[in-house]
Amino acid sequence: MKLYINEGIERYISEERYPWHMPGHKRNASIDPMFEKDFTEVRGLDDLHHPEEMILSSMNELSKVYGTYRSYYLVNGSTGGLLAAVMACAKKNKTEEKAPGLLVAANCHKSVFNGAELTKAPYEIFHPMQDEVTGIYESIDPTALGKYLEKKKKEGILYSAFVMTSPTYEGIISDTSAVKKVLTEYNMKLIVDEAHGAHLPFSDRFGVSAIKGNADIVVESLHKTLPSLTQTAVLHIVSEDEALKEKVEKYLSVFQSSSPSYIFLAGMEKCVALCDEKRSEFDAFYDRVMSFREGFEAEGVKHIKLLSGTDPSRLTFLVEGMSGRDAALYLEEHYKVVMEMSGRCHMVAIATVMDSEAAFDTLLGAIEGLDGYIESKAPGVGSSIGGNYFEDIFILTETGKCPLSESEGKKSENAVYVYPPGIPVIHAGDIIEKNMLSELEKELACGAKLRIK
């Protein structure tokens, strides 16, 4: 992949033009070396919102690498891409009593629900199966989805698109090809939040990307699993659909900064080019991951298990004897090993192509140490539930402000979630049920902090 953006920036710098324009640091590298390559939209450097030169050429290369109709650099992360995708696929027809709405999987990121609310189109929530003990969502069952859609169709309810997450935060991948096949029968688009699967297009050994699964729009966070800066992502329109392309581009201009970072753009181009050219590195990475998994199993760890059936690089540890949050804190304090996230009874480590064999060895040693610590303690330490965890927590309901502890049976006007992963336990519009409050109580008992929107 040719580095059009990087070469264009280097060429511009070599011309020694003085900036009487933004940014205010005036590319003075004496303050910070990165300033030298931080530009605004000037003649010769193209414009992300109206690309005609180096950015357009780079994004054309991007589409070739991924095998898509169109691919776009995102400087506002996957959040901006998901907002644009949802807005582009929502249908609002005020002349129809039951206009097509959106169907959103319950384990979607909060940005998807924010987008669904912004469309002003009706949306409903599809609930994938959840593990009863861990609360971890399973993959989307195409058969169950088909039955749900058929039932809704008989009720006169139609949808324009289905939004789902694959891989999930815990690394569970759905068969997007089978999901798309079901949706085709109902003339629905498929939007896949593949934020945690940016590495999948570079090696099928970790799982099949939704790009190959014929999704209509796929959004990937480069920074989550590839060597790229935080806040960098890409959006793909998989098959030729000019009408969808125009809508996506319209909303990308709405949800992305009008001053896109050229540091981000150059970094994304380098990241994709490197991954495309070094695909063999992903095979070597796969071998390191599998070696770690085999070593983990061989150690006979008693109180910690690896979740199976996931993307091999997503190391989701199920913890017994203490909460996942307490376990993650122990690893950080005693071994300087920092988990990506932790929940009531699990914790997640993200492995990437940048992790060395030595890094995996350190992680394995830390997990063994944690297991020994749990073994030395009484079972259940750190996981007991008791006390008023809802004290001073209020939400808005249809009857006004209400203590969360007294909200059962009321209709919530707020979304309530634990972050990470940012998946609502209570959605705006939900009638609050006892099991929802129980789930939140368990999370709070393990040290979680709620966010209310």
What does this 3D model show about the protein?
The longest helix is centred in the middle third of the chain and has 21 residues, at 279-299. This protein is an alpha/beta fold and 453 residues long. The protein is globular, with a radius of gyration of 23 Å. Residues 381-386 have low confidence and may be disordered. It has helices at 4-14, 54-66, 77-89, 110-119, 142-154, 176-184, 222-225, 242-255, 262-277, 279-299, 324-335, 357-376, 434-445, and strands spanning 70-74, 101-105, 123-126, 159-165, 189-193, 217-221, 233-237, 304-306, 314-319, 341-342, 346-350, 394-397, 400-403, 416-418, 423-426, 450-452. The strands form four sheets. Strands 1-7-6-5-4-2-3 form a seven-stranded mixed β-sheet, with helices on both faces. A four-stranded antiparallel β-sheet has the order 8-9-11-10.
Query: What percentage of amino acids are in beta strands?
Result: 15-25%
Mean pLDDT: 93
- H and E order: HHEHEHEHEHEEHEHHHEEHEEHEEEEHE
Secondary-structure content class:
alpha/beta
| Alpha carbon gyration radius | 23 Å
Question: Could you name the ranges where pLDDT drops below 50 across 5 or more consecutive residues?
Answer: 381-386
The 3D shape can be described as globular
What's the total count of β strands? Answer: 16
Distance between the termini: 42 Å
**Strand arrangement in the largest pleated sheet:** 1-7-6-5-4-2-3
Number of helices: 13
Q: Approximately how much helix is present in the residues?
A: 25-40%
**How is the biggest beta sheet arranged?**
7 strands, mixed
